[in-house]
Write a structure and sequence with these properties.
The protein has one domain. The protein is an all-alpha fold.
Length: about 120
């Protein structure tokens, strides 16, 4: 996909959501394996490439910065969110649990970004 003068941002976001769906298939089961740095880095690399296309950025932009610019939640936080939603009690509807967990994920991402050193200026 061309970096500029290519498809519209809406189509790029659609492709990103497809990439996230593929990456997160079965995340409720294997999310704990992302605590291993090697696996997390592999998943982040794939997500970063898609986020570079959404933001029309160059490849020198850090992963944290391009995810913020593209407005995409990091894959490890997204996988843990899905695991928490899956593990919720049956008395809470899945929609309410998803909303609550999304808010918690956004809060965790905000805290994570304030502690990061790379891409902080961006």
């Amino acid at each position: 996909m061309a970096n500029t003068n290519g498809t519209r941002p809406g189509k790029r976001r659609l492709l990103m959501s497809t990439v996230n769906s593929i990456l997160l298939y079965g995340a409720e089961i294997w999310a704990d394996s992302l605590k291993t740095k090697k696996y997390c880095h592999t998943m982040t690399t794939v997500q970063r490439r898609s986020a570079l296309r959404i933001a029309c950025s160059y490849r020198t932009v850090s992963a944290q910065a391009v995810l913020v610019v593209a407005g995409v939640i990091p894959i490890d936080l997204f996988a843990f969110e899905r695991k928490r939603v899956y593990g919720r009690d049956a008395d809470v509807t899945r929609r309410d649990a998803a909303t609550t967990e999304r808010d918690a994920t956004i809060q965790t991402w905000q805290e994570w970004l304030t502690e990061e050193t790379t891409g902080n200026w961006t």
